[in-house]
Amino acid sequence: ILDTGVNASHPLLRPAVQDGTVLSARSGWPSSDADGHGTSMAGVALYNDLKAAVLSQGPVSVSHHIESVRIFPPSGANEQSMYGVITRDAVSEIEFAQPALNRVFCMAVTDDGSITDGSPTSWSAEVDKLVAAVGEEDEDKRLLLVSAGNVDTNEFRAVPYPGTNLTSPVESPAQAWNALTIGAYSDDVSTNEVGFEGYAGMAEKGGLCPYSRTSHIWDDMWPIKPEICCDGGNLATDGFNWLDSLDMSKLSTSNDLPSSYFTSIRATSSATAQASWMAARIMDAHPGIWPETVRALLVHSARWTDTMKRQFLPEYDTTKGPRRDLLRTCGWGVPNIDYALGSLDNRVNLIIQGEIQPFKEDGTCKEMRVHELPWPKEELLGLGEKEVELRVTLSYFIEPNPGERGW
């Protein structure tokens, strides 16, 4: 967790935090969490659905543990020019402390003062370099998940949902090509909270979360962001006003001990923590899997909800324009952890990890790979005239060139 720190003394986090893995990016900075955001991220990244875990009658099994590197000073703020350097130092700190582990880097922190059109910033370029291990001796690539950033909900007064989402671009460094950028959708649409009588969810069930930013206004030369959406809760509205509701948020761990052991978390922060939980599950199930492959499995398992299609595919229009709108708003949809885990053993899937140099330095073609699908020919022929769908996901990391367009 690259965030505000983590309160590792929390009884629901303590068993999953090893000694020497709660650190800070700068000597002299505390590693503790005074803000609370990092601790609430940790609760979701460890348990996913903490409410279900608390209400369960039996033991709860977790397959991974939590590490934390604080990337914020104890007072004030970091210089914008230092965002990338501090992120790099945070990664170095935890890798030096525990060099042999497979890990998911989870960063639900963005530059809310930036206006990005999809072009690189020094921070996004540093993220791209870290993920691809550019210039590093061991060349161990990394998996880094970053939030798309949250909409200023005050803007709904001028441009109602989801119009504001379409004109609110993803914040830096989430435009990084190599990062897996996480947006949000809404799963909860009702609330029984006192004082919320007459309120309901602003978004329909399965729709784009009101908090989630998009790449809708970016030129096509820039990457599709976010790539996937996880549950970010909802805004409660009576048609005129909108409020945050506990019933439309995720339950998580609080840093404010012993006053409160639980808190709520929502928006793209909650979504990024959930996606990190999924990625950790995949890494645990398949040790040694490449970061590119974990990213591919999450995207490959994603599907658009019917509500997303209704919102951004008019009458399920499958032409290029509406599909582009859907992609640049909801990415590839909502990932399914069971599908992602099953893709490696009991699903009809071909997964290949390899290297290829498709182009020469002058831009002409160099290499290609041809793969024979290992599926029974007789079974395929036996399908007759039935339609089948072939879904191909290609996942690779680029070497960043922040001064150029970066194709």
Give a quick account of the main beta sheet: strands, pairing sense, barrel closure: 4 strands, parallel
Mean pLDDT reading: 92
Taking pLDDT < 50 over at least 5 consecutive residues as the criterion, the unreliable ranges are none
Strand order of the largest sheet: 4-5-6-8
Number of helices: 11
Measured between the Cα atoms of the first and last residue, the distance is 30 Å
* Rg (C-alpha, Å): 21 Å
Helix share bin: 25-40%
Give a brief description.
The chain is an alpha/beta fold and 407 residues long. It has helices spanning 37-47, 50-55, 83-97, 122-132, 163-167, 267-285, 291-300, 306-312, 320-330, 337-342, 377-381, and strands spanning 2-3, 22-24, 68-70, 104-107, 143-147, 180-185, 200-201, 228-231, 235-237, 242-244, 250-253, 262-265. The longest helix has 19 residues, at 267-285.
